[in-house]
Design brief:
Layout lengths: L1 H51 L2 E11 L4 E11 L6 E2 L3 E7 L3 E6 L8 E3 L9 E3 L9 E6 L8 E6 L3 E2 L3 E2 L11 E9 L5 E9 L12 E4 L16 E8 L5 E2 L4 E6 L5 E2 L3 E8 L5 E6 L8 E5 L1
Parallel strand pairs: 5-15
Antiparallel strand pairs: 1-2, 1-21, 2-17, 2-18, 3-16, 4-5, 4-19, 6-14, 7-8, 8-9, 9-10, 9-11, 12-13, 13-14, 15-17, 19-20
Length: about 300
């Protein structure tokens, strides 16, 4: 009888162990199936994004220099693909290729400002240090360049990594007090044409011979509208909304111009290629060629 009881207890233990193993296995299977389902949904969403989301380039224009027979300042008219979800320009890059050069540009837009510094002291003709604009760990400098009474003055920036900028037109004579000024996006431009930031001025009543405290702000990106005059060449592009809202996204029904420029203009008959890479969505590219004769200031180069 004792032997039978012991055998029954052993059988019960084995049965319970089997149930526990089966329960654990079922839990693992359910958990794994949930993970696989999530992964399959993510892959399906990414696949749909690659197939559906994207940008159409409908037209490409260039500004022609009829004197030097060259072309630059690329304008791309774009819209979203049918059924595309919104495209975020902040995570969209552009590559532009010529026979001799390749450029990669990211968005320049007020939403992309990472560096913003306002001078809390007055600015005169002596160099004044401000924060590190060029990112080398050393403070940079700015000063007023006086051109004498009756002449518009200039600003100049000294970046520790790149040296002194070209003279930046201020647009008024600082020797005259009491002026009301408001200027956005004065490019910090160097002799080679490269831009490393922007200066913004706002003062209800200027002092004589200097700029008042808290009236000069320096940023790394534009705060105003997109234009070729302020666009950083080769490394940035900007957007000008034709139809829609200028919020940094391309949505259904919207039409937008993308501006891009180069330091080295294209020559007549030069071939070019542009590719737009949204982070979420498929890339879009077009090929084109500068006309064999540059005969007007604004040319259609695609289609």
């Amino acid at each position: 009888m004792n032997k039978k009881g012991i055998m029954g207890i052993g059988t019960l233990i084995i049965f319970i162990a089997t149930i526990l193993v089966a329960a654990v296995a079922a839990g693992v299977i359910i958990s794994t199936s949930g993970i696989l389902q999530q992964q399959s949904l993510l892959i399906a969403d990414q696949s749909q994004s690659r197939l559906v989301d994207g940008i159409q380039i409908t037209h490409v224009f260039m500004r022609g220099d009829v004197v030097n027979r060259t072309a630059n300042n690329v304008e791309m008219l774009i819209r979203p693909e049918p059924a595309s979800r919104p495209i975020n320009f902040q995570t969209t890059s552009i590559s532009f290729f010529t026979a001799t050069n390749a450029y990669s540009a990211s968005l320049s837009h007020p939403t992309m400002i990472d560096f913003e510094f306002t001078l809390t002291t007055s600015l005169d003709t002596t160099w004044q240090a401000f924060a590190d604009l060029d990112g080398d760990g050393v403070a940079d400098e700015i000063r007023l360049v006086d051109q004498g009474a009756g002449n518009p003055d200039f600003l100049q920036v000294n970046l520790s990594r790149h040296g002194a900028s070209a003279l930046l037109p201020l647009g008024f004579d600082t020797s005259v007090a009491g002026q009301s000024i408001s200027r956005e996006d004065i490019p910090i431009r160097f002799a080679d044409g490269r831009i490393y930031g922007y200066i913004h001025l706002s003062d209800a009543s200027t002092a004589a011979g200097s700029l008042n405290p808290n009236t000069v702000t320096i940023t790394d990106e534009i705060r105003g509208p997109c234009s070729f005059e302020t666009l950083r060449p080769e490394t940035r592009y900007c957007i000008s909304t034709v139809v829609g809202t200028d919020d940094g996204y391309l949505e259904y029904g919207e039409t937008v111009f993308i501006y891009f420029s180069m330091l080295q203009p294209l020559l007549e008959n030069d071939q070019w290629e542009v590719i737009i890479f949204p982070q979420d969505g498929r890339s879009t590219f077009v090929l084109g060629r500068v006309p064999s004769v540059v005969y007007q200031q604004r040319m259609t180069v695609f289609p």
